[in-house]
Design a protein that fits this description.
- Pfam families: Acetyltransf_1.
- This is GNAT family N-acetyltransferase.
- The chain has 223 residues and is of the alpha+beta class.
- 30% of the residues lie in helices and 32% in strands.
- Strand 7 and strand 8 (154-160) form a beta hairpin.
- Helix 1 packs across helix 5 and helix 4 packs antiparallel against helix 5 (115-131).
- The chain is globular and about 55 Å long.
């Protein structure tokens, strides 16, 4: 295997319980090399690139990810006194909120994968971020309602308990969390969102985020 063209993704392997790889270049040489290997493959390509070779070598579309970015000067905060952040939260409580919360995830949308493996991938990721002190609880009127996970200036994961969903709380929690990241000295805060997640697209737009880029994601499963 040529390291520059294809790399192993052990974080995906742990969750999916199969060999997993990412193609780092969109070339026929890399696509051809994947033909002789078993496992699950991911490749991220420019939306304007031709997808002819991808289809020829068995890759199928799963998602388009966009990158919203917010600068301190363009940030539009919202306030609600009942909403607070919790910096000391129980690990099991956070993981419980995570379960089943990611319908827009590309591994959940991959029709060749079992949903349990996709769920486990997010649980593993959230657990790793928690162990790195990169997860804050979201409290409503003193009760844990959800969580906000990040790394440096990148928002990575966020979810609410079912009883707090659909109540318009996200913009208030995001406002508090993003403001703290700005206060820690970051000039910008960014995230990555599925283009199919319209609720999240509307949320970040309301906070002053602007869309700076996009990638199409294709998968392949060789068994």
């Amino acid at each position: 295997m040529t390291e520059e063209m294809i790399r192993e993704t052990p974080w995906d392997k742990r969750a999916l319980e199969m060999d997993t790889y990412e193609l780092l270049v969109h070339s026929e040489e890399a696509l051809k090399k994947s033909e002789s290997m078993e496992g699950h493959f991911t490749i991220k390509v420019d939306p304007l690139d031709s997808k002819k070779l991808l289809h020829q070598y068995g890759f199928y579309y799963t998602d388009t990810l966009v990158t919203p970015v917010c600068h301190r000067q363009t940030f539009i905060p919202f306030e609600d006194e009942k909403l607070t952040l919790m910096f000391d939260v129980n690990r099991e409580d956070i993981i419980a909120i995570s379960k089943g919360a990611y319908e827009h995830g590309r591994f959940h949308r991959d029709f060749k994968l079992d949903r349990s493996g996709a769920d486990q991938r997010y649980d593993n990721w959230l657990g790793q971020l928690y162990d790195q002190n990169k997860v804050w609880g979201l409290a409503y009127d003193g009760e844990l309602a959800g969580f906000f996970a990040f790394s440096e200036n990148q928002v990575l994961l966020q979810a609410f308990k079912p009883e707090y969903q659909g109540r318009g709380l996200s913009k208030y929690f995001w406002s508090q969390a993003v403001q703290i990241l700005f206060d820690e000295g970051y000039g910008e805060v960014k995230t990555s969102i599925s283009a199919a997640n319209l609720a999240m697209m509307n949320l970040v737009t309301s906070l002053g985020f602007k869309f700076k880029g996009a990638v199409d994601i294709y998968h392949k499963l060789n068994t």
